[in-house]
Amino acid sequence: MQGYIIDIKPVKDDDLIVTILCENELITSYRFYGARHSNINIGYKIDFELEVTKSNIARLKDVMQLGFPWILNVQKMYCWQRYLKLFYAHLKDLEYLDGFYFYILENLVKKIEKQNVLRAIIESYISILENEGRLHFDFECLICEIEIEDELCLLRGFLPTHKNCIKANIFNLKSIKELFYTKSTISLNDEEIEKLWNIILLGL
Question: pTM for the complete prediction?
Answer without folding.
Answer: 0.93
